[in-house]
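Thread: Aminoglycoside phosphotransferase family protein, structure

OP (GT): Posting the sequence first so everyone is looking at the same thing. Length is 305 residues per the record. Can we get the C-alpha cells written out before standup tomorrow? I want them in the notebook alongside the other entries.
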Amino acid sequence: MQRTDKLKAGKFAVGVDLVRRLVARQFPQYADLPVREVENDGWDNWTFRLGDGLKVRLPTAEGYAGQATKEFHWLPVLAPLLPLAVPMPVALGKPEADYPWHWTIYDWTAGEPVRRELVPDLTSFASDLAGFLEVLHQIDVEGGPVAGAHNFFRGGDVIGVYGAEARRALDQLRDRIDTAAALAVLDAAQAAPFSGPPCWLHGDIAVGNLLVTGGKLSGVIDFGSCGVGDPACDLVITWLFFEGESRNAFREAVAADTGRWARARAWALWKAALVLASGAPTHPEEFSPAEVIAAVLDDHRARAD
C-alpha cells in the first residue's frame, strides 16, 4: 500500500519524526535506534522499522485503534501454538496529544511478502498455508474476541453484515459481470449459515501478510483483524492468489465442508465486487477484481454441477 493512497483517503498522518518522538518519550531505551519507513505498508496501520530488530505499528484511523491492544494481549497467547513465525509485541504505546491511539512495538518478523517469483513451488506454499490455518482454527477460543466491529465482522455472518452492500455493488456492475450467477453465490452462502463451533481466525489472509524465506512460507503477520467465529473468511486467498494446481492443493489441504466454501466464495465476491465497482487499488500480486469474480463464479458453477 502506497503512503500517498492512505493520505488521500484521509488517514491520520504519521511520519518518521512523530515516531521518533513517541518512542523517545515512552520507551527511552529505544530512543537511539534509527526509524525508517517500510517498503511494504498496510492499510490499517503505519509501519516503521525501529533499528534492525524491531518495528512500530500505529493505527491509521479510529476504526483500527483497537487492534493494538488486541494484538498485544493475544499474540503472545497464539504464537507458541502456531507452526510459523508471527509478530511478537514488545511494548504497548499510549495515546498522547500528538497521536490519539494506542500503538505497538513488535519484534521484526523475518521474510519478504510473498511474490510468485519468490516461490518456486506454489503448490507446496498453498499446502503450508492451509496447514497453518488448520492449526490456528483449532486453537482453544476461550475468552477470545468474538467477531464484531473490532475486526469488521471477519468471522461473522457475511450475508447479514455485507450482503446488502454486495448486492449494491453487483447492481453497479450489471453490465460488466454475470450478476445472476453472482447473486446465486450470495444465496448459496445464505443457505449455509455457520453453525459452529467457533474458531480462531486471522481475518486478513492476503499476500501482503504472508512472508517468504528461502522460497517457502515462513511467517504470517498482521493479526489486527483476528477474532473468534466462522473461519470461512480465511479462505478467500483461494481466488485472490492461487490458481490451477496451487488452488486445488489449498482446497484439498483445508478441512472445510461445502458450507464453509460457500461462505468463503461470498466473502471473496463481496470484496472483489466492492473494489471493482469503486475502482480502488489492488495488490499487484493478487488477481484483478474482475478475475477474482470470474474465478468465484466458475468455482460456484463447478460445485453446483
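GT: Both are above now. Quick notes for whoever picks this up: Residues 46 and 58 are 5 Å apart (CA to CA). The first strand starts at residue 35 and ends at 37.
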